[in-house]
Amino acid sequence: MEVLKVSAKSQPKMVAGALAAILRGKSTAELQAVGAAAVNQAIKAIAITRGFVAPNGIDIITVPAFSSISIDGEERTAIKFLVEPR
Asked: By three-state DSSP, how is residue 2 classified?
């Protein structure tokens, strides 16, 4: 499974392009985001991705979950979005 890390400064269209490439390969992807702004960018990227892959006949589903990650030795709670073709 591919893991894409999304920050508050990530461009949703760029993340969507990477996510669409993974999904076209019939693989599952995980987006990780820490903080409200990063979660916002991740959700926008998922919405844009739907538009990118729909012409290929791919419908996607997203499952959100919490995840504990370590950033600079500090435990943080991230939101992860599992994205896969339906």
From this structure: strand
Task: Assign 4 to helix, strand or coil.
Answer: strand
What residue has token string 């990227």?
45
Q: Provide the 3-class DSSP secondary structure of residue 52.
A: helix
Residue whose entry in the numeric block shows the structure tokens 């979950």 = 65
Tokens of 33: 């985001």
Rg (CA), the chain: 13
Residue range of the domain that includes 39: 2-85
Digitized pLDDT (tens) for each residue of the chain, 86 residues in all: 889 999 999 999 999 999 999 998 878 999 999 999 999 999 999 999 999 999 989 999 999 999 998 888 889 999 999 999 98
CATH code for the domain in which residue 45 is found: 3.30.110.20
Tokens in use for 62? 């997203």
Give the type of residue at 7: S
